[in-house]
Design brief:
The protein has 609 residues and is of the alpha/beta class. The chain is 37% helix and 20% strand. β8 and β9 form a beta hairpin.
């Protein structure tokens, strides 16, 4: 029987439920348990694919192409698991499923209502997804962490609260635990408990009783024992069930903070986890995970050497827009033994127009660019700010500054090369200038032009390295010298095939292509310390103990040539992909153009000018 841990929030949203849920799951994994996770988002969207990154944060992409909430990225990184699109439940998905069943007559003429039909669908969904294997064991998980987005009392989350009230009786009280995360405001040095008392009162009125109250204090000051005692008294929980979570220098310390306050013991007692039969090999593996996690977190605090990376992006007003990118940089910096200094530059601030509009922003942006040890241009959509990205790429290429381009950054690197090396001054992407005379980046023909949601080239896909890259490619060595690598994609545009030969002959090496050799997916320069770009999003597959290879290369090259060579040697010996073996199977191309039963993609007919 799977054990369920619901993590809910009160007072306000965005106080760290995702990190606390992920940290709790990690701690349970260190005891040898198999853990999965589900995120509930009460919004009406089917998925996060069409949401603005500056409003909602990063759109995280899964192996199966699911576009989901960024918290699923936390789960995959902390728990080292591979989740699916249905591990993210939204109001839109649930209502769509129920309405489709009603149209098919599955409810036998009954009046379809929020209770029981919507609430039953939510419970069925959770129970179904909780039993799907998500790690290398291929076995059913022991524990399922469920994070309920938003705050208790929201109108939109009411059906989910009611569903979870019913669910605790469906699975039994010994198989269900509730962690409620609440804010503890600090007013002039005094920690206030009234907001937490109010949210617990609301929660109990809805039929849910917390087993653990996580008190979130938005300051480096720890939650005082007097505060915990007061919450214990007025919220009907034992003092050992009140956990303080204050701001820390790194979110990677949160699991150890929770552990030090006995959260594992409370959950073991509530859910009977000590009665489970855990194989000795899993116990040993969990102990090793705990040792390695403690090693990277405590060691990170003692780092003095720094590495400076400038991120030139379109959505820097909300740092969560690049959540996985920043995590990939952090993981890589920890591996190299450097403290990361990340400079944020809005790409439009680098453009000449900004010099007239706001000279201070313009000069600050260029100062950050020229002083960085490494330059990163991440993904994005639309024309705004792309000329600033071209300027950043040109500086990195000409000044031999380590550079990594991701998705849009890959396409911008192609545009910059075409303009400044090939001499095609008007080279551009049809995304930015539809009628450009030199479309070096074009719209993929099989992608819908009328529907935006779920219509991109999405999910885990292979990239096959060219044979002649074996000896010289730094990127290939970072991937352990593999012939084929697997990364997640999310894009509508690609390099225009008519220009590939001219770009390659001029020195821009497309070292990685798709299985049919038609789509360019990775590029690298030979005569550069580190100039790499990928069409994929490797940041989605980074892990704290297994950093994403392209990001590790950027950090190492930006640190020193010695660090870079050391990481190349290490990766050749130790790199292991974070994906399940079953997911890394090359498609079979048949003579009639069918790929694993799917019709071959439409060839591109754009002509070079």
């Amino acid at each position: 029987m799977v054990k369920y841990i619901l993590v809910s929030g009160g007072v306000l949203s965005g106080i760290g439920k995702g990190v606390i849920a992920s940290s709790t799951g990690l701690l349970l994994k260190t005891t040898g348990l198999k853990v999965t996770a589900i995120k509930i988002d009460p919004y009406m969207n089917i998925d996060a694919g069409t949401m603005s990154p500056t409003e909602h944060g990063e759109v995280y992409v899964l192996n199966d192409g699911g576009e989901v909430d960024l918290d699923l990225g936390n789960y995959e990184r902390y728990l080292n698991v591979t989740l699916a699109r249905d591990n993210n439940i939204t109001t839109g998905k649930v209502y769509r499923e129920v309405i489709e069943r009603e149209r098919k007559g599955d409810y036998l003429g009954k009046t379809v209502q929020i209770v029981p039909h919507i609430t039953n669908e939510i419970q069925d969904w959770i129970e179904r997804m909780s039993k799907i294997p998500v790690d290398e064991t291929g076995e059913e998980p022991d524990v399922c962490i469920i994070e309920l987005g938003g705050t208790v009392g929201d109108i939109e989350s009411a059906p989910f609260i009611e569903a979870m009230r019913q669910f605790q009786f469906r699975v039994g009280p010994g198989n269900f635990a509730l962690i409620h995360v609440s804010l503890i405001p600090d007013i002039h040095g005094e920690q206030k408990t009234k907001p937490t008392q109010a949210t617990i009162r609301d929660l109990r009125g809805l039929g849910l009783l917390p087993d653990i109250i996580a008190c979130r204090l938005a300051s480096p000051q720890v939650v005082q024992e007097e505060t915990k005692a007061k919450i214990s008294m007025f919220c009907h929980v034992g003092k050992d069930q009140v956990i303080g979570v204050h701001d820390m220098s790194s979110v990677y310390h949160v699991p150890l903070l929770l552990e030090s306050q006995g959260i594992v013991h409370v959950l073991q007692h509530k859910l009977g986890l000590l009665d489970l039969n855990i194989p000795p090999a899993m116990v040993e593996k969990g102990a090793d995970l705990h040792k390695r996690w403690k090693g990277i977190t405590t060691g990170h605090e003692r780092l003095y050497d720094t590495v400076s990376i400038v991120l030139v992006g379109k959505y820097t007003s909300l740092k969560d827009s690049y959540m996985s990118v920043t995590k990939a940089l952090e993981h890589s910096a920890m591996r190299v033994g450097r403290r990361l200094i990340l400079e944020w530059v809005e790409s439009s601030d680098l453009e000449p127009e900004m010099q007239q509009h706001d000279p201070r922003k313009y000069h600050d942006a260029h100062k950050a660019l020229v002083s960085a040890n490494g330059i990163l241009v991440p993904g994005g959509f639309g024309e705004r700010g792309t000329e600033g990205m071209v300027i950043a790429v040109k500086w990195a290429r000409e000044q031999k500054v380590p550079f990594l381009g991701i998705c849009l950054g890959f396409q911008v690197a192609v545009i910059e090369w075409a303009r400044n090396v090939l001499g095609l001054k008007d080279a551009n992407s049809t995304e930015f200038v539809e009628d450009t005379s030199n479309p070096v980046v074009v719209y993929m023909p099989e992608i819908s032009r009328t529907h935006l949601g779920g219509t991109m080239r999405l999910g885990l896909r292979p990239t096959i390295f060219d044979e002649d890259s074996t000896e010289w490619s730094k990127l290939r060595k970072l991937y352990g010298g593999a012939d084929t690598i697997w990364e997640r994609h999310r894009h509508r545009y690609e390099v225009g095939p008519p220009y590939v030969d001219r770009l390659t002959e001029s020195g821009l090496h497309f070292i990685g292509k798709d299985t049919k050799g038609e789509r360019m997916q990775a590029l690298e320069l030979k005569d550069h310390p580190y100039f790499v770009a990928l069409q994929a999003h490797p940041e989605f597959c980074t892990r704290p103990i297994n950093p994403s290879p392209p990001f590790l290369g950027l950090i190492a090259a930006a640190s020193s040539s010695e660090d870079f060579e050391q990481q190349l040697v290490s990766q050749l010996k130790t790199f292991k992909p974070p994906h399940p073996e079953a997911a890394m199977v090359l498609p079979k191309v048949e003579p009639n153009g069918v790929v694993n039963g799917l019709v071959k993609e439409t060839p591109i007919t754009v002509e070079a000018k």
